[in-house]
Design a protein that fits this description.
The complex is a heterotrimer. By secondary structure, chain B is α/β, with parallel strands linked by helices. Chain B is built from 20 helices and eleven strands. In chain B, strand 5 and strand 6 form a beta hairpin. The two termini of chain B are about 40 Å apart. In chain C, helix 2 packs across helix 3. The chains are: A alpha+beta, B alpha/beta, C alpha+beta. The complex binds flavin mononucleotide, iron/sulfur cluster (2 copies) and FE2/S2 (inorganic) cluster. The site of FE2/S2 (inorganic) cluster has 13 residues of chain C, from loops.
C-alpha cells in the first residue's frame, strides 16, 4: 500500500490537527481514512503503512485497530447492515429486522452472503434510540425501519453491483 | 410552554450556516465575553448559573473550570465530549446536527475562560455525517474571524478540531476519551491525577459534554443569575431530554426543570403518552446506566410526592426507591415489555463495551450477561437471581472507572423492583418463551409509609 | 545536611509506620510485612505505570488523613494510592475488603483453566496463592470457559493465553526494559488478549524478563517446558560475566543439571536489585543459553520462604557425596544410580495410567513406549 501525493497531503492535514510531536493522536482518523482507501477493511499491510506514516510501531496500531468496533480486520461485503440491538431498539422491534434480513438474504449476524454483497452485523447502541429500529450502512444511518424499508435497502445494495 | 434556551432557533431555515445563525443573534456571547469580560468573569458567570454537567454525572461546570490547574507555560485544553453512546441518549447529536454553531459559540467562550487555544470535539465515529456538519460550521466560523488568531481583535487565539472515535462507548468516560484522543486504546486512566491537572498530553484539561458547553452561550448572554432563575433548586436552567421506547412522540425535548415526570410522559407537548394506547410499566429516565423504576415509583416518590424532572427529585429516595437524571436518555417501557430481556440487552451492551482492564468489570459483565440470557430463555434457577445480585454487588465500586457501576446498577435495580418477574421466568420456563409477564402490579399505587 | 523530610504516619490494620511522602499504601504495608500486606497481582514496583488493574489490593481507607479525617467512600487500589499523614487503612481487618477481594479472586478464576497440574508456573504462581487465601472450593460459574486461538511467540517464550489475567506487566517490560515492543493487548473487554497480531517471535535481548514478571503461567520458559516441577528443583544463586546484563541470576537445578535460569526475586516475587543497586533484569543469553553448570559461578543456595513449596527441595550446603564405594570394594553397587535404570516403575508416565496401577498395566505401557 502506498498513497499518492494527493492522498499524502490529506494525511498531513489530519496530522496538522495536533501539536508538534503528537502525530500519534491522528491514528484513529488515519485508520478511518486508510480503511476507506483499502476497500473497507484494515489488512496487516494497511496497518503497517499507517504505522509508518505516523512513525509509530506496528503493535501500537494493532492494539488500537482491534479495540474499536468500527475497524474491520477482515474483508467485508460491499454493503454492511449493522442493526442496533440494544435496549431501546429492542423495545421497538430490532429482533424483527434481524429476522427479516435472514428471511430475505439468508444471513445471520456475522455472516456475508455468498456473492459477497451483503454482510449482516448486530451493533450496540448507535445513538438513534428515538428513531428505532435502525441500522447503520457505511457512514449513514437508516432509521425507523420497516420491512418495506429493508427491501428498498437490499435493492439499493444490489444496484451497487452494477 | 417552558422556555427554550438551546433549541429555540434549531428549526430556523438554514440555521446550520453561519450567516443565518449570526443573523438570528448568534455569536453575541463571543463578542460580549472577548470584548467586555475577563476569562475569570466568564467562569464566575458559569458558577453563578448553577449549570451542572449534562454528560451524566451532573458535576457543577463552573466548579470544574475553577479546578483547572494553570501552571506557567503549559498549554491547557478544552475537550468537548460528543461521544454520546449511552443507550437512550441522542440529544447531543440533535443539537450538533441542527444547530452546530451553538456548540462552537459555546466552545469559544469556554476556551476563552479556560485559556485553551486549541480545543477539540471528540465525536463518536458513527456520527460521521455530524462530524462533517461540524467541520463545515467550524470552517465558516474561521472564515468569519470567530476562530483563528486574534479573534475580534481581542488578542485571543483559538481553533477547534473535530476528532472522531471509532466505536467504543467507554471513550465517553473522560479519561478514556483523552487516551483515545492521544491515539491509544480507550482504557480509562487511574485517578488521581484528574484531567484538570494532567489531561490531554499531560496538560491541564477540562472535559465537558456538548450540552453543557452549549449552555454557556445563554449564560454569557443573559448572565448566570438569569439562567439560575429557570428550573428548580439545584437543577437550574433547561435540560435536553431524549425520549424513546414505547411512546407516541419519541424525540429530543428541551425542558425547563420544573415539570413533573407524568406531564413529560403524557402531555402532547412532550412524549404524547404511551404508544398504541397501552399502559406504562417501567422507565429508565436517565440513560441505560441509571436504575429502572416501575411506573408507580416513577410517577410518585416513596413519600407520595409527584416526581419531577429535576436532578433532586429523580434521585429522591436514593437507589432504594429513586433513580438519577443521568444523561437525560428517557427510555419508556409499556406493559408488553419484558424487564428481564431488556436488562439482558443492557448487560450484553456493557460486556461488549468493557475495556477489559480491570478484573471485576471484564469478567463480571460477561457472567451477568450469560445468567440473564439463561433466565430470559427459561433456563434459569432461583439461585441465579441471588447470584446475579451478588455479582453486581461485587463489581460496583470496585472498578477503575464508573462503567463497572453503570453495568451493575441496571441489574441491581431490575432485581430490586422486578424480582417477581425474574422468579416468574424461573418457575414458568415455557411461558417465559412464549409471552411476557405483563404489567403485573408495577403500576398499582404504592402505600405511602408515613413516619408518625 | 539538607532539610529533613517530614515522614508521614500511616496506620494499617492497627500497625503504624512512618513512610516518606509519595509512598503508596501498598509500599507502606510491605514495609510492615506479613498479613498486613495486600496481595498485588498487577502492580510491580519496578515497572512505571503498572498497577490499578487487577483490584486484588483494594483496601479501605477509614480515615483520609489527620487534616481531613473523612473516610474514603470506596475501597481504593492500595498500589496506586498515596498515603497521607495520619491515614488509617484497613486491610484484613475490614470485612468489606475481604468480601471484595473474594469477589475479585472469583472473577479472576471464572475463566481460568485451573490446569495447575500441567502448568509450569505451579508452585510459584501468585494466583494459586491468592485463591488459596481468598478462594472458594467450588465455582459458581457454570458456563464454558473462554478460549483463544494459539499464538507462537518464538523458540523461548511459551504463551498460554487462557491463564493470563491481563495485568499488563509484560507490556510494560517490553516498553521499559527491552525497549522494543512487538506484543501487546489486542481486542477489548473479555476478549482482550496478549498477542503479536501477526505471528512474530519475541527475540529482543531482554524480552525474556516477561517470564519473570508474569504472575501466572501465561508466559513461561519454553526451554524449561514440562522439564520438571519447581518444587523438585533447587534454586541457587549464581553469576557469570555477562556483557549484556549483570549476570546475577538464580539457577534452578536438579543434581548437576541447570534446568532453568531466572532473575533473582525478592519476597514479593519481584526481580531483586543487583549488587550494584540496579534492577536485576537478566538477558536472554543468560536465561536461555547458559544451561551448563560450568557457565556459572555458584554462590550458594537461594533464600527461599519457608512457606513456599519450593522450600521442600531446598537444601543448605552444596556438598555432593563422593562415590567412594567402588574404590573400596571394587564393585559398583546400585546405590547412587539413576532409579530409572533399575526399575520399570519409573519408565512409564504415571499420568498416562488409566485405572489402578497393576503390573500388567506397567508391562503394557512399557511396551508401547
Ligand atoms: C462509561 C462512561 C461513559 C460516558 N459517556 C459519556 C458520553 O457519551 N458523553 C458525555 O458527555 N459524558 C459521558 N460520560 C461522562 C464523562 O466521563 C464526563 O463526566 C463528562 O463528559 C463530563 O462532562 P459534563 O461535566 O459536562 O457532564 C461517561 C462516563 C462513563 C463512566
Ligand atoms: S470498569 Fe470496565 S471499562 Fe472501566 S476501566 Fe475497568 S474494565 Fe475498563
Ligand atoms: S501474559 Fe502474564 S504478564 Fe502478560 S498480561 Fe498476562 S498475566 Fe500479565
Ligand atoms: S495490585 Fe493493585 S490493582 Fe492490581
Amino acid at each position: 500500500m502506498k498513497f499518492s501525493d494527493d492522498k499524502l497531503k490529506q494525511v498531513d492535514e489530519l496530522v496538522a490537527h495536533y501539536p508538534e510531536g503528537k502525530q500519534k493522536s491522528a491514528l484513529i482518523p488515519l485508520l478511518h481514512f486508510v480503511q476507506k482507501e483499502n476497500g473497507g477493511w484494515l489488512s496487516t499491510e494497511a496497518m503497517d503503512y499507517a504505522a509508518e506514516l505516523l512513525a509509530i510501531t506496528p503493535i501500537e496500531v494493532y492494539e488500537v485497530a482491534t479495540f474499536y468496533s468500527m475497524f474491520n480486520l477482515q474483508p467485508v461485503g460491499k454493503t454492511i447492515f449493522e442493526v442496533c440491538q440494544t435496549g431501546p431498539c429492542m423495545l421497538n422491534g430490532s429482533d424483527g429486522i434481524v429476522a427479516y434480513i435472514y428471511e430475505k438474504l439468508g444471513i445471520r449476524p456475522g455472516e456475508t452472503t455468498a456473492d459477497g454483497l451483503f454482510t449482516l452485523k448486530t451493533a450496540e447502541c448507535l445513538g438513534a434510540c428515538g428513531y428505532a429500529p435502525m441500522m447503520q450502512i457505511g457512514p449513514s444511518y437508516r432509521e425507523k425501519l420497516t420491512k418495506e424499508k429493508v427491501d428498498a435497502l437490499i435493492e439499493e445494495g444490489r444496484k451497487k453491483l452494477n | 410552554m417552558g422556555r427554550k434556551l438551546l433549541l429555540e432557533k434549531a428549526h430556523v431555515e438554514g440555521i446550520r450556516h453561519y450567516d443565518v445563525y449570526r443573523r438570528e443573534g448568534g455569536y453575541r456571547s463571543v463578542e460580549k465575553a472577548l470584548k467586555t469580560m475577563s476569562p475569570d468573569q466568564v467562569t464566575e458567570e458559569v458558577k453563578k448559573s448553577g449549570l451542572r454537567g449534562r454528560g451524566g454525572a451532573g458535576f457543577p461546570a463552573g466548579m470544574k473550570w475553577s479546578f483547572l490547574a494553570k501552571p506557567e507555560g503549559v498549554p491547557r485544553y478544552l475537550v468537548v465530549n460528543a461521544d454520546e453512546s449511552e443507550p437512550g441518549t441522542f440529544k447531543d447529536r440533535y443539537l450538533m446536527e441542527f444547530i452546530p454553531h451553538l456548540l462552537i459559540e459555546g466552545m469559544i467562550c469556554a476556551s476563552y475562560a479556560l485559556g485553551s487555544n486549541r480545543s477539540y470535539i471528540y465525536i463518536r465515529g458513527e456520527y460521521w455525517w455530524v462530524k462533517e456538519i461540524l467541520e463545515q460550521a467550524i470552517q465558516e466560523a474561521r472564515n468569519a474571524g470567530m476562530l483563528g488568531k486574534n479573534i475580534l481583535g481581542s488578542g485571543f487565539d483559538c481553533d477547534i478540531f473535530v476528532h472522531p472515535g471509532a466505536g467504543a462507548y467507554i471513550c465517553g468516560e473522560e479519561t478514556a476519551l483523552l487516551e483515545s484522543l492521544e491515539g491509544k486504546r480507550g482504557n480509562p486512566r487511574l485517578k488521581p491525577p484528574f484531567p484538570a491537572v494532567k489531561g490531554l498530553w499531560g496538560c491541564p484539561t477540562v472535559v465537558n459534554n456538548v450540552e453543557t458547553i452549549s449552555a454557556v452561550v445563554p449564560i454569557v448572554n443573559d448572565g448566570g443569575d438569569e439562567y439560575a432563575k429557570l428550573g428548580t433548586g439545584k437543577s437550574t436552567g433547561t435540560k435536553l431530554i431524549s425520549a424513546c421506547g414505547n411512546i407516541n412522540k419519541p424525540g429530543v425535548y428541551e425542558i425547563e426543570m420544573n415539570i413533573s415526570v407524568e406531564e413529560f410522559i403524557y402531555s402532547d407537548e412532550y412524549c404524547g403518552g404511551i404508544a398504541n394506547g397501552k399502559r406504562l410499566k417501567a422507565c429508565i429516565p436517565g440513560g441505560s446506566s441509571v436504575p429502572i423504576l416501575p411506573a408507580n415509583l416513577l410517577l410518585k416518590t416513596a413519600k407520595g410526592d409527584a416526581r419531577m424532572m429535576t436532578y433532586e427529585s429523580l434521585s429522591d429516595g436514593g437507589f432504594a426507591t429513586g433513580t438519577m437524571m443521568g444523561s437525560g436518555g428517557f427510555i419508556v417501557m409499556d406493559e408488553d415489555q419484558c424487564v428481564v430481556k431488556h436488562t439482558y440487552t443492557l448487560a450484553r451492551f456493557y460486556r461488549h463495551e468493557s475495556c477489559g482492564q480491570c478484573s471485576p468489570c471484564r469478567e463480571g459483565t460477561g457472567w451477568m450477561e450469560k445468567i440473564l440470557l439463561n433466565i430470559e430463555n427459561g433456563k434459569g434457577k432461583m439461585s441465579d437471581i441471588d447470584l446475579l445480585w451478588d455479582i453486581q454487588r461485587k463489581i460496583e465500586g470496585n472498578t477503575i472507572c464508573p462503567l463497572g457501576d453503570a453495568a451493575a446498577w441496571p441489574v441491581a435495580a431490575a432485581i430490586r423492583h422486578f424480582r417477581d418477574e425474574f422468579e416468574w421466568h424461573v418457575t414458568n420456563p415455557s411461558d417465559a418463551l412464549s409471552r411476557n409477564y405483563g404489567l403485573a402490579n408495577y403500576a398499582k399505587p404504592l402505600e405511602v409509609v408515613t413516619t408518625a | 545536611m539538607a532539610d529533613e523530610k517530614k515522614l508521614f504516619k500511616v496506620t494499617i490494620d492497627n500497625i503504624t509506620v512512618d513512610v516518606e511522602p509519595g509512598t503508596t499504601i501498598l509500599q507502606a504495608a510491605r514495609k510492615i510485612g506479613g498479613d498486613v500486606t495486600p496481595p498485588a497481582m498487577c502492580y510491580y514496583s519496578k515497572l512505571k505505570d503498572s498497577g490499578g488493574k487487577c483490584r486484588t489490593c483494594l483496601v479501605e481507607v477509614a480515615q483520609g488523613s489527620t487534616a481531613d479525617p473523612r473516610p474514603m467512600p470506596k475501597l481504593v487500589a492500595s498500589c496506586r494510592t498515596n498515603v497521607m499523614d495520619g491515614m488509617v487503612v484497613k486491610n484484613i481487618t475490614s470485612e468489606r475488603v475481604i468480601d471484595a477481594r473474594n469477589g475479585v479472586v472469583e472473577f479472576l478464576l471464572i475463566n481460568h483453566p485451573l490446569d495447575c497440574p500441567i502448568c509450569d508456573q505451579a508452585g510459584e504462581c501468585h494466583l494459586q496463592d491468592l485463591s488459596y487465601e481468598n478462594g472458594k472450593s467450588a465455582s459458581r460459574y457454570e458456563f464454558k470457559k473462554r478460549t483463544f486461538d494459539k499464538h507462537d511467540l518464538g523458540p523461548y517464550i511459551q504463551l498460554h493465553m487462557t491463564r493470563c489475567i491481563l495485568c499488563y506487566r509484560c507490556v510494560y517490560v517490553a516498553d521499559q526494559v527491552s525497549g522494543e515492543r512487538r506484543h501487546g493487548i489486542l481486542n477489548r473487554g473479555d476478549h482482550a488478549e496478549i498477542a503479536t497480531y501477526i505471528e512474530k517471535s519475541l527475540d529482543n535481548d531482554f524480552i525474556g524478563n516477561v517470564i519473570d514478571v508474569c504472575p501466572v503461567g501465561a508466559l513461561t520458559d519454553k526451554t524449561f517446558r514440562f522439564k520438571n516441577r519447581v518444587w523438585f528443583t533447587k534454586p541457587v544463586d549464581a553469576h557469570c560475566n555477562c556483557d549484556k546484563c549483570s549476570g546475577e541470576v538464580q539457577l534452578w537445578m536438579r543434581g548437576d543439571e541447570v534446568l532453568r535460569v531466572t532473575a533473582r526475586k525478592d519476597e514479593w516475587g519481584e526481580v531483586k536489585d543487583t549488587t550494584k543497586g540496579e534492577p536485576g533484569w537478566i538477558c536472554n543469553t543468560c536465561r536461555f543459553e547458559r544451561k551448563k553448570v560450568s557457565d556459572w559461578v555458584i554462590e550458594g543456595p537461594s533464600q527461599v520462604n519457608r512457606h513456599s513449596v519450593i522450600s521442600q527441595g531446598h537444601y543448605t550446603g552444596l556438598v555432593k557425596p563422593k562415590e567412594t564405594i567402588q574404590k573400596v570394594t571394587g564393585r559398583d553397587p546400585k546405590l547412587l544410580l539413576n532409579i530409572k535404570d533399575v526399575t520399570e516403575v519409573n519408565q512409564v508416565e504415571l499420568s498416562e495410567l488409566k485405572g489402578p496401577a497393576t503390573s500388567q498395566v506397567f508391562k503394557q505401557l512399557k511396551k508401547e513406549n
